[in-house]
């Protein structure tokens, strides 16, 4: 089964997790980035990122190489912003009609809370009832712990 891991990462936690999953599953990595980067420090980071997430904005993305018909499974990786999935992921989903017909799994990385809410909002936005698998991690790059590796391995085995 051909798998793509599509992710957006600001602080590196989602990238860190995506790379570990890709290694374990021999999946393709597709990093998406908005054309205009969000502030990544201080109060501006939380204000602009949170506002963009709450307002359900769909920022323009830099070019990325992804052809939906080449994949059977798509794993989506996102940070959690204000109990929402990141706006670049919203744009990616919107741009890739038919994604709901694929097997879809999701992983989130966050510092605060709201991961369950973000996952449920993503399900509604995609138009599905369930993900094939879900993984929630708290700052996995910053707070490396053996438990996180075990959770990642369990997530991957659910998809095997």
Summarize the structure.
The chain is of the alpha/beta class. Helix content is 38%, strand content 21%. Strands 1, 2, 3, 4, 5 and 6 form a 6-stranded mixed sheet that branches.
Notes on the protein architecture:
The structure is a single chain. Strands 1, 2, 3, 4, 5 and 6 form a 6-stranded mixed sheet that branches. It is built from 5 helices and 6 strands, in the order βαβαββαβαβα. A hairpin with a 2-residue loop joins β3 and β4. The model has no long low-confidence stretch (mean pLDDT 90). The longest helix is centred in the N-terminal third of the chain and has 13 residues, at 13-25. It is globular, with a radius of gyration of 14 Å. The termini are close together. It has 160 residues and is of the alpha/beta class. Helix content is 38%, strand content 21%. The protein has helices spanning 13-25, 42-54, 87-95, 115-126, 146-158; strands at residues 3-7, 28-31, 73-81, 84-85, 103-110, 134-138.
């Amino acid at each position: 089964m051909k798998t793509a891991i599509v992710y957006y990462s600001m602080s590196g936690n989602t990238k860190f997790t995506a790379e570990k999953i890709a290694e374990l599953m021999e999946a393709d990595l597709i990093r998406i980035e908005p054309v205009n980067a969000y502030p990544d420090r201080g109060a501006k980071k939380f204000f602009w990122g949170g506002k963009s997430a709450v307002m359900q904005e769909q920022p323009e993305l830099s070019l990325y190489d992804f052809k939906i018909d080449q994949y059977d499974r798509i794993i989506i990786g996102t940070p959690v912003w204000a109990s929402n999935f990141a706006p670049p992921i919203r744009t990616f989903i919107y741009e890739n009609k038919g994604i709901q017909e694929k097997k879809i799994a999701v992983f989130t990385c966050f510092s605060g809370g709201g991961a369950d809410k973000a996952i449920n909002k993503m399900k509604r936005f995609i138009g599905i009832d369930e993900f094939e698998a879900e993984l929630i991690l708290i700052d996995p790059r910053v707070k490396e712990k053996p438990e996180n590796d075990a959770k990642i391995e369990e997530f991957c085995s659910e998809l095997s």
